[in-house]
Automatic annotation (TrEMBL):
This is TusA-related sulfurtransferase. Keywords: Transferase. GO terms for molecular function: transferase activity. CDD domains: SirA_YedF_YeeD. It comes from the Bacteria. InterPro entries: TusA-like, TusA-like_sf.
Amino acid sequence: MNHDKLVDATGLACPLPIVRTKKAMNELQSGQVLEVHATDKGSKNDLSAWAKSTGHELVSDTEENGVYKFWIKKG
């Protein structure tokens, strides 16, 4: 999936993946897509809930070799 910006939060524990995602999302325009990579197992629930509560859309997410990948469209 295409993205406008990538955040590599692999190896970081909660809350850092969310903190880095929020900072990167502030740099995007509405409709742009942020790709996030994380290894923290809680990231799946955390990023999904964060996107919903902040008006963004979790377009897709996958898990590959212990790395969780998320694509979030800015609302």
